[in-house]
Automatic annotation (TrEMBL):
Keywords for the protein's UniProt record, in alphabetical order: Hydrolase, Magnesium, Metal-binding, NAD
GO cellular component labels: cytosol
Keyword Nucleotide-binding annotated: no
InterPro entries: NAD-cap_RNA_hydrolase_NudC, NADH_PPase-like_N, NudC-like_C, Nudix_hydrolase, NUDIX_hydrolase-like_dom_sf, NUDIX_hydrolase_CS, NUDIX_hydrolase_dom, Znr_NADH_PPase
Cofactor(s) annotated in UniProt: Zn(2+); Mg(2+)
Catalysed conversion reaction: a 5'-end NAD(+)-phospho-ribonucleoside in mRNA + H2O = a 5'-end phospho-adenosine-phospho-ribonucleoside in mRNA + beta-nicotinamide D-ribonucleotide + 2 H(+)
Example GO biological process: NAD+ catabolic process
PROSITE patterns: NUDIX, NUDIX_BOX
Protein EC: 3.6.1.22
Species, as recorded: Prolixibacter bellariivorans
Protein name: NAD(+) diphosphatase
PANTHER family: NAD-CAPPED RNA HYDROLASE NUDT12, NUDIX HYDROLASE, NUDC SUBFAMILY
Every Nudix hydrolase domain range: 148-274
């Protein structure tokens, strides 16, 4: 999956009061695009040394380290020589050959969006400040502390014997299918959220819910929690007609276009195709 970048090393431990160094990586976003250094078709992360205009007065925020090299979010506008640099729309992470760049690009995108959305206090409207000793923003007026938002979401491979249920989201382009997924609501367990989402989106009752694994998904600020569940294929499929446009059972060797293995959905579908999809946790039956 996309966060699996070995032998490269990603460390999101916050380092307080770290100044940006000449060799440090620079992540500079413009709308939904990231500034990259280019040499023909090859892309690489730029460094502070590429931008003489970055000084101690430049607004920058420490994010994380990649291979022990600090990565900084630079907020100020940069002078861009387009013969050396290019803005890449964030979806480039799906096709770039360097997995470490793909991962830090969207991890930084998550944090950039969170910082942008919390420049002002949601309670009193005062401008927030970066907390000096941890990754958080604090309101100097009402003293509220806000931490990065991570939204839990379930994603489930629904199986019936040698068949897998796949659904096409109304927002997907073309004939593209994936697994049923949805956000956990207030007061729900993960298993209850799963049963509710499946019932709402495709009209099925599921049993034998088993944990698979989890994956951070920075594009939506989510933590995807994967499960495998069973359903009787003779139940009528009733799509909600809003989020889900169509859904159907598919057999191995006859799967439609679907997610790649950079996502937990794609990995689970690939495991099903190989006949190796298994839950990893205690079997839990849920009634709704």
């Amino acid at each position: 999956m996309i966060q699996d970048i070995f032998p490269h090393r990603f460390n999101n431990q916050y380092i307080a009061n770290l100044p940006i160094g000449e060799n440090d990586f620079v992540l500079h976003y413009h709308d939904n695009s990231l500034l990259m250094k280019t040499d023909g078709e090859a892309l690489e992360l730029p460094r502070k040394s590429d931008f003489p205009e970055i000084t101690k007065r430049t607004e920058s925020t420490f994010l994380f380290t990649l291979d022990d090299v600090p990565c900084f979010l630079v907020w100020d506008d940069l002078k861009v020589d387009y013969s050396l640099f290019t803005y890449q729309e964030i979806s480039f992470f799906r096709t770039i050959e360097q997995p470490e760049i793909a991962w830090v690009s969207i991890a930084g995108f998550h944090l950039m969006n969170w910082y942008t959305q919390n420049r002002f206090c949601g309670k009193c409207g005062s401008r927030t400040e970066h907390k000096s000793n941890e990754r958080a923003v604090v309101c100097p007026n009402c003293h509220i502390t806000v931490y990065p938002k991570i939204s839990p979401a379930i994603i489930v491979a629904i199986v019936s014997g040698d068949k897998l249920l796949l659904a096409r989201n109304a927002n997907f382009r073309g004939n593209w299918f994936s697994l049923v997924a949805g956000y956990v609501d207030v007061g729900e367990t993960l298993e209850e959220a799963l049963a509710r989402e499946v019932k709402e989106e495709v009209g099925l009752d599921v049993t034998n819910i088993q944990y698979y694994k989890s994956q951070p998904w920075p594009l939506s600020g989510s933590m995807m929690i994967g499960f495998v569940a069973e359903a009787d294929e003779h139940q009528p499929i009733r799509v909600d007609g809003n989020e889900i446009a169509e859904a159907a059972w598919f057999s191995r060797g006859h799967l439609p276009n679907h997610s790649s293995t950079i996502s937990i959905a794609g990995e689970m579908i690939a495991q099903f195709e190989k006949g190796e999809l298994q839950g990893c946790g205690e079997v839990k039956k849920v009634r709704v």
